[in-house]
Specification:
The chain is α/β, with parallel strands linked by helices. It contains eleven helices and seven strands.
Protein backbone atom coordinates (compact mmCIF):
# COMPACT_ATOMS: atom_id res chain seq x y z
CA UNK A 1 0.00 0.00 0.00
CA UNK A 2 1.46 3.34 -1.07
CA UNK A 3 1.78 6.15 1.44
CA UNK A 4 0.14 9.51 0.82
CA UNK A 5 3.45 11.01 -0.23
CA UNK A 6 4.19 8.10 -2.59
CA UNK A 7 0.80 8.55 -4.25
CA UNK A 8 1.40 12.28 -4.64
CA UNK A 9 4.82 11.70 -6.14
CA UNK A 10 3.46 9.13 -8.57
CA UNK A 11 0.74 11.52 -9.74
CA UNK A 12 3.24 14.37 -10.02
CA UNK A 13 5.54 12.25 -12.19
CA UNK A 14 2.67 11.15 -14.42
CA UNK A 15 1.40 14.66 -14.96
CA UNK A 16 4.90 15.97 -15.57
CA UNK A 17 5.10 13.50 -18.46
CA UNK A 18 1.63 14.51 -19.67
CA UNK A 19 2.65 18.19 -19.71
CA UNK A 20 5.21 17.30 -22.39
CA UNK A 21 2.80 15.23 -24.51
CA UNK A 22 0.51 16.58 -27.17
CA UNK A 23 -3.26 16.46 -26.81
CA UNK A 24 -3.64 13.56 -29.27
CA UNK A 25 -1.50 11.31 -27.07
CA UNK A 26 -3.48 12.30 -23.98
CA UNK A 27 -6.84 11.76 -25.68
CA UNK A 28 -5.87 8.22 -26.64
CA UNK A 29 -5.59 7.28 -22.98
CA UNK A 30 -7.62 7.41 -19.81
CA UNK A 31 -7.01 11.00 -18.75
CA UNK A 32 -3.50 10.88 -20.15
CA UNK A 33 -2.48 7.94 -17.99
CA UNK A 34 -0.71 6.05 -20.73
CA UNK A 35 -3.03 3.02 -20.76
CA UNK A 36 -3.53 3.45 -24.45
CA UNK A 37 -6.82 2.53 -26.07
CA UNK A 38 -7.69 1.95 -29.71
CA UNK A 39 -10.77 4.09 -29.10
CA UNK A 40 -10.31 7.50 -30.75
CA UNK A 41 -11.96 9.56 -28.02
CA UNK A 42 -11.00 10.55 -24.51
CA UNK A 43 -12.94 8.39 -22.08
CA UNK A 44 -13.59 11.11 -19.54
CA UNK A 45 -13.52 14.57 -21.08
CA UNK A 46 -16.21 16.79 -22.56
CA UNK A 47 -15.83 19.12 -25.54
CA UNK A 48 -14.65 22.60 -24.54
CA UNK A 49 -14.18 24.01 -28.01
CA UNK A 50 -17.45 25.96 -28.14
CA UNK A 51 -16.82 27.84 -24.87
CA UNK A 52 -15.62 31.44 -24.93
CA UNK A 53 -11.99 31.71 -23.85
CA UNK A 54 -11.10 28.22 -25.05
CA UNK A 55 -7.46 27.88 -26.10
CA UNK A 56 -6.43 24.62 -27.83
CA UNK A 57 -2.83 24.83 -26.59
CA UNK A 58 -4.08 24.80 -22.99
CA UNK A 59 -6.40 21.82 -23.50
CA UNK A 60 -4.59 18.58 -22.71
CA UNK A 61 -7.78 16.51 -22.75
CA UNK A 62 -7.51 15.65 -19.05
CA UNK A 63 -10.89 16.74 -17.73
CA UNK A 64 -14.09 14.85 -16.97
CA UNK A 65 -16.61 17.68 -17.23
CA UNK A 66 -17.13 21.38 -17.95
CA UNK A 67 -17.17 22.98 -14.48
CA UNK A 68 -16.63 26.53 -15.76
CA UNK A 69 -19.80 26.21 -17.83
CA UNK A 70 -21.82 25.67 -14.63
CA UNK A 71 -19.82 27.87 -12.25
CA UNK A 72 -22.02 31.01 -12.36
CA UNK A 73 -18.97 33.26 -12.70
CA UNK A 74 -19.74 37.00 -12.81
CA UNK A 75 -17.77 39.96 -14.11
CA UNK A 76 -15.17 41.04 -11.57
CA UNK A 77 -15.10 37.73 -9.68
CA UNK A 78 -11.94 36.19 -8.28
CA UNK A 79 -11.81 32.58 -9.45
CA UNK A 80 -9.49 29.80 -8.28
CA UNK A 81 -8.91 26.69 -10.38
CA UNK A 82 -7.63 23.66 -8.44
CA UNK A 83 -5.26 21.49 -10.46
CA UNK A 84 -5.06 24.05 -13.24
CA UNK A 85 -2.85 22.05 -15.59
CA UNK A 86 -1.95 23.97 -18.75
CA UNK A 87 -4.55 26.65 -17.95
CA UNK A 88 -7.62 25.56 -19.92
CA UNK A 89 -10.27 26.21 -17.26
CA UNK A 90 -8.47 29.36 -16.10
CA UNK A 91 -8.67 30.93 -19.54
CA UNK A 92 -12.35 30.05 -19.88
CA UNK A 93 -12.98 31.47 -16.39
CA UNK A 94 -11.19 34.67 -17.44
CA UNK A 95 -13.62 35.08 -20.34
CA UNK A 96 -16.39 35.08 -17.73
CA UNK A 97 -14.78 37.26 -15.06
CA UNK A 98 -13.39 39.78 -17.55
CA UNK A 99 -10.60 42.32 -17.24
CA UNK A 100 -11.85 43.46 -13.82
CA UNK A 101 -11.65 40.00 -12.31
CA UNK A 102 -8.79 37.71 -11.38
CA UNK A 103 -8.08 34.03 -11.97
CA UNK A 104 -5.61 31.98 -9.91
CA UNK A 105 -4.58 28.52 -11.04
CA UNK A 106 -3.00 26.16 -8.51
CA UNK A 107 -1.08 23.05 -9.54
CA UNK A 108 1.66 21.09 -7.79
CA UNK A 109 3.39 19.89 -10.96
CA UNK A 110 6.17 22.34 -11.97
CA UNK A 111 5.99 21.32 -15.65
CA UNK A 112 2.28 22.15 -15.75
CA UNK A 113 2.85 25.54 -14.07
CA UNK A 114 5.54 26.36 -16.65
CA UNK A 115 3.27 25.37 -19.53
CA UNK A 116 0.33 27.38 -18.15
CA UNK A 117 2.46 30.48 -17.66
CA UNK A 118 3.77 30.21 -21.21
CA UNK A 119 0.21 29.98 -22.50
CA UNK A 120 -0.87 33.00 -20.45
CA UNK A 121 2.09 35.01 -21.75
CA UNK A 122 1.22 34.15 -25.36
CA UNK A 123 -2.34 35.31 -24.78
CA UNK A 124 -1.24 38.48 -23.01
CA UNK A 125 -3.36 37.78 -19.93
CA UNK A 126 -2.22 39.85 -16.96
CA UNK A 127 -5.04 38.96 -14.58
CA UNK A 128 -4.40 35.20 -14.71
CA UNK A 129 -1.66 33.82 -12.49
CA UNK A 130 -0.44 30.32 -11.71
CA UNK A 131 0.85 29.27 -8.30
CA UNK A 132 2.67 26.05 -7.59
CA UNK A 133 1.30 24.39 -4.49
CA UNK A 134 -0.62 21.54 -2.91
CA UNK A 135 -4.40 22.02 -2.96
CA UNK A 136 -4.50 20.35 0.48
CA UNK A 137 -2.68 23.49 1.69
CA UNK A 138 -3.39 26.21 -0.83
CA UNK A 139 -1.01 29.16 -1.27
CA UNK A 140 -3.98 31.53 -0.92
CA UNK A 141 -5.22 33.67 1.98
CA UNK A 142 -8.62 33.04 3.55
CA UNK A 143 -11.79 34.56 2.07
CA UNK A 144 -10.18 35.27 -1.31
CA UNK A 145 -12.31 33.55 -3.95
CA UNK A 146 -15.80 34.24 -5.18
CA UNK A 147 -15.76 30.98 -7.15
CA UNK A 148 -13.67 27.79 -7.16
CA UNK A 149 -13.59 25.42 -10.11
CA UNK A 150 -11.79 22.13 -10.57
CA UNK A 151 -11.83 19.49 -13.29
CA UNK A 152 -11.05 15.84 -12.56
CA UNK A 153 -8.48 16.58 -9.86
CA UNK A 154 -9.82 15.84 -6.37
CA UNK A 155 -10.13 12.14 -7.20
CA UNK A 156 -6.32 12.08 -7.45
CA UNK A 157 -5.86 13.58 -3.99
CA UNK A 158 -5.53 11.18 -1.01
CA UNK A 159 -6.84 13.69 1.56
CA UNK A 160 -10.08 14.84 -0.05
CA UNK A 161 -11.46 16.04 3.29
CA UNK A 162 -8.50 18.39 3.60
CA UNK A 163 -9.13 19.85 0.14
CA UNK A 164 -12.78 20.62 0.89
CA UNK A 165 -11.69 22.14 4.19
CA UNK A 166 -9.26 24.37 2.32
CA UNK A 167 -11.91 25.28 -0.24
CA UNK A 168 -14.15 26.46 2.60
CA UNK A 169 -11.29 28.53 4.01
CA UNK A 170 -10.36 30.36 0.80
CA UNK A 171 -13.91 31.05 -0.40
CA UNK A 172 -15.49 34.34 0.59
CA UNK A 173 -18.71 34.14 2.62
CA UNK A 174 -21.40 33.66 -0.02
CA UNK A 175 -18.88 32.18 -2.47
CA UNK A 176 -19.38 28.85 -4.17
CA UNK A 177 -17.67 26.10 -6.12
CA UNK A 178 -18.44 24.02 -9.20
CA UNK A 179 -16.22 20.98 -9.58
CA UNK A 180 -16.23 18.05 -11.97
CA UNK A 181 -14.89 14.77 -10.65
CA UNK A 182 -15.00 10.99 -10.93
CA UNK A 183 -16.96 9.04 -8.30
CA UNK A 184 -18.00 5.43 -7.93
CA UNK A 185 -21.24 3.53 -7.49
CA UNK A 186 -20.30 0.13 -6.09
CA UNK A 187 -16.79 -1.27 -5.69
CA UNK A 188 -14.28 -1.51 -8.53
CA UNK A 189 -12.33 -4.76 -8.96
CA UNK A 190 -9.19 -4.80 -6.84
CA UNK A 191 -6.95 -5.13 -9.91
CA UNK A 192 -8.18 -1.80 -11.24
CA UNK A 193 -7.94 -0.15 -7.83
CA UNK A 194 -4.31 -1.19 -7.51
CA UNK A 195 -3.21 -0.21 -11.02
CA UNK A 196 -1.09 2.93 -10.86
CA UNK A 197 -1.93 3.78 -14.47
CA UNK A 198 -5.62 3.75 -13.68
CA UNK A 199 -5.01 5.84 -10.56
CA UNK A 200 -3.31 8.61 -12.54
CA UNK A 201 -6.05 8.07 -15.10
CA UNK A 202 -8.77 9.31 -12.76
CA UNK A 203 -10.45 6.08 -11.69
CA UNK A 204 -8.82 4.16 -8.85
CA UNK A 205 -8.46 7.25 -6.64
CA UNK A 206 -12.17 7.93 -6.80
CA UNK A 207 -14.47 7.31 -3.84
CA UNK A 208 -18.13 6.42 -3.53
CA UNK A 209 -20.55 9.10 -4.73
CA UNK A 210 -22.41 9.33 -1.42
CA UNK A 211 -19.14 9.55 0.53
CA UNK A 212 -17.99 12.35 -1.77
CA UNK A 213 -21.16 14.37 -1.18
CA UNK A 214 -20.87 13.72 2.56
CA UNK A 215 -17.37 15.22 2.61
CA UNK A 216 -18.81 18.41 1.13
CA UNK A 217 -21.60 18.51 3.69
CA UNK A 218 -19.45 17.90 6.78
CA UNK A 219 -17.13 20.73 5.75
CA UNK A 220 -19.96 23.22 6.15
CA UNK A 221 -21.10 23.76 2.58
CA UNK A 222 -24.78 24.32 1.79
CA UNK A 223 -27.01 24.13 -1.29
CA UNK A 224 -25.18 21.04 -2.54
CA UNK A 225 -26.41 20.27 -6.06
CA UNK A 226 -25.35 17.83 -8.77
CA UNK A 227 -25.33 20.00 -11.88
CA UNK A 228 -24.44 17.24 -14.35
CA UNK A 229 -23.90 13.48 -14.18
CA UNK A 230 -22.77 10.99 -16.80
CA UNK A 231 -21.69 7.35 -16.74
CA UNK A 232 -18.13 6.63 -17.86
CA UNK A 233 -17.63 3.51 -19.96
CA UNK A 234 -14.09 2.14 -20.11
CA UNK A 235 -13.37 0.37 -23.45
CA UNK A 236 -12.71 -3.36 -23.30
CA UNK A 237 -9.17 -2.97 -24.63
CA UNK A 238 -8.27 -0.95 -21.54
CA UNK A 239 -10.11 -3.30 -19.18
CA UNK A 240 -8.34 -6.29 -20.72
CA UNK A 241 -5.01 -4.87 -19.54
CA UNK A 242 -6.13 -5.52 -15.97
CA UNK A 243 -8.91 -8.12 -16.14
CA UNK A 244 -9.49 -11.45 -17.84
CA UNK A 245 -12.40 -11.84 -20.28
CA UNK A 246 -14.43 -13.57 -17.56
CA UNK A 247 -13.63 -10.83 -15.05
CA UNK A 248 -14.72 -8.17 -17.56
CA UNK A 249 -18.09 -9.87 -17.96
CA UNK A 250 -18.49 -10.12 -14.17
CA UNK A 251 -17.52 -6.47 -13.78
CA UNK A 252 -20.08 -5.33 -16.37
CA UNK A 253 -22.82 -7.37 -14.74
CA UNK A 254 -21.99 -6.24 -11.21
CA UNK A 255 -23.79 -2.90 -11.38
CA UNK A 256 -20.58 -1.11 -10.49
CA UNK A 257 -20.48 2.32 -12.05
CA UNK A 258 -17.85 4.95 -12.79
CA UNK A 259 -19.56 8.32 -12.93
CA UNK A 260 -18.52 11.86 -13.79
CA UNK A 261 -20.35 14.42 -11.66
CA UNK A 262 -20.28 18.20 -11.63
CA UNK A 263 -21.17 19.41 -8.13
CA UNK A 264 -22.13 22.89 -6.91
CA UNK A 265 -22.01 23.98 -3.28
CA UNK A 266 -21.92 27.27 -1.41
CA UNK A 267 -20.23 28.80 1.61
CA UNK A 268 -23.15 30.70 3.08
CA UNK A 269 -22.92 34.47 3.60
CA UNK A 270 -23.05 34.11 7.37
CA UNK A 271 -20.11 31.66 7.43
CA UNK A 272 -17.19 33.53 9.03
CA UNK A 273 -14.63 30.76 9.35
CA UNK A 274 -14.16 27.00 9.34
CA UNK A 275 -17.11 24.87 10.55
CA UNK A 276 -17.40 24.76 14.31
CA UNK A 277 -15.19 27.75 15.16
CA UNK A 278 -17.78 30.56 14.99
CA UNK A 279 -19.66 31.65 18.09
Amino acid sequence: METTEQIKEMVKQKYSEIALQDKEDNQASCCGSGCCSTEVYNIMSDDYSNLEGYNPEADLGLGCGLPTQFAKIKKGDTVIDLGSGAGNDCFIARAETGETGKVIGIDFTPAMIDKARQNADKLGFHNVEFRQGDIEKMPVTANTADVIVSNCVLNLVPNKYGVFQEMFRVLKPGGHFSISDIVLVGTLPKKIQEAAEMYAGCVAGAIQKEAYLELIDVNGFKNITIQKEKTITIPDDILSTYLSAEEIVTFKQSGTGIVSVTVFAQKTAEACCAPGCCS
